[in-house]
Task: structure prediction
Amino acid sequence: MKPTYYLTTPIFYVNGAPHIGHAYTMIAADVLARWKRLAGYDVFFLTGTDEHGQKVEKAAADAGKDPQTFTDEVSAIFADIARRMNITNDQFIRTTEPRHKAASQAIWKQLEANGHIYLGGYEGWYAVRDESFYDEAELVTNAQGQKLAPTGAPVEYVTEPSYFFRMSSFGERLIAHIEANPDFIGPRERRNEVLGFLKSPEGLKDLSISRTSFRWGVPVPGDDAHVMYVWLDALTNYITAIGYPDMTGPLAKFWPADLHLVGKDILRFHAVIWPAMLLAADLPLPKRVFAHGWWTVEGEKMSKSVGNVIDPRELADAFGVDPLRFFLLRETTFGTDGDFSRASLIRRMNVELANDLGNLAQRTLSFIAKNAGGVMPKRGETTPEDATLAAHRDALVASVGAAIDRQAFHEALETIWVVIRSGNAYIDQQAPWTLKKADLVRMEAVLANLLDLLRVVSTLLQPFMPESMAKMLDQLGVPADARDFASLATPIAEGTALPPPAGVFPRFVEAA
Ligand code: MSP
Result:
């Protein structure tokens, strides 16, 4: 029986076109999903679209379309982005699916049966852009005297009948859970923020969980005048996908989720509201919620009004999907903000992909093709330099795996790059081109060491750059069914024929 691993991305609002921020969450989660599969896990990887609520209803109206037609169209764009980014999600959930309405109504009824829902009235501020309620004290006033949410979103004053979730009664249990489980929320600073919020004098309040001023949502069971607050339905997607309310099928196998990967803006929904809902419904809590940072573009916040929203498909067309995936996880510490610029993407492509990794592979493979019969060379006696290189190589899978388990993708890549650079130093130092004239046995041994190194590096980089690494592993003579981590223990047999080498990472030259 394989161990299981269930991970999720947030489901994306279908109010507008996807941009690199959305692709980022998907790609990071995909790297993790692919890594865990290669490490022998039975992975369930979920992404999808969040299609209800006032924001989506408005966007549909602005587009002159009925909400269902509109969400069908925009959801298909997100699914296309996932496909183009090579995302290996096992399911793509849409919150307008009947099974999801059923699951949302089921959890509502469970909360109600457990005595955690009551009818009242909401009077206060609401930001449609954030789909979030705000206290008067949280609001800021801009230069024009307009009241805004702390996120900068416009707010409106709402007075309407509303059902409430008795969230306030879960504060103590949440604090205790977060304190007893240091890995429940990452990164660490964000965990402290959540604890600070829960322990603040205002503490946890009851949450308004239904709306009556518009129709685009899941109807509240037994009271059709209300639709559910969009976050209540959205968060439930994580259990809809595995069969809730049926507790015996995939849910029994995959719940609790191993990881909810989210952006920093929606951590509180995932680290406070969702766990409170689960506690209230007698369901176990996810093992971890990790919040990543936000991307700006060429130093500016991405926005429709600035006109700097980048479609990740355009970037993939211009630079390739793998360099884009690599760049997004390499450029900045996962968990902090980053700035996207074409210049830094091109720099990393040329320095790290073309020079460091591409050259190491190209130099080794073309040398073997020309001077060692185009086959896996014979391994020889081990010198101290060989032993050092091999030790670094063999430590990689564990150290990179540990970084990935902490969602430290940048660190995982840096660890691999240290070894790639030492491979380049090794080839310069050992100079097989000199050995060619003096010591063919040693020349072969050096080349074999380099191929053994390249094989490990390419195997571990598959989750980050799946297409390029498939090409690389083809050239290294690694059979398609021997590319998981367990296969690393079986070296490529000496004499294995290698296909003619072809560069995997060409230098990127900006068109004049
Ligand atoms: N629908 C909610 C999530 C519900 S999950 C039960 C939502 N959707 S969203 O489309 O607005 O955002 C989806 C994800 O994209 C979030 O994790 C958000 O942080 C991320 N990003 C949106 N803009 C981003 C950047 N500029 N940079 C990085 N990530 C960004 O929130």
Observations:
- The pocket of 5'-O-[(L-methionyl)-sulphamoyl]adenosine is lined by residues 10-13, 21-22, 24-25, 50, 234-235, 237, 262-263, 265-266, 294-295, 302 (CB under 6 Å).
- The mean pLDDT is 96.
- The radius of gyration is 26 Å.
- Residues 342-371 form the longest helix (30 residues).
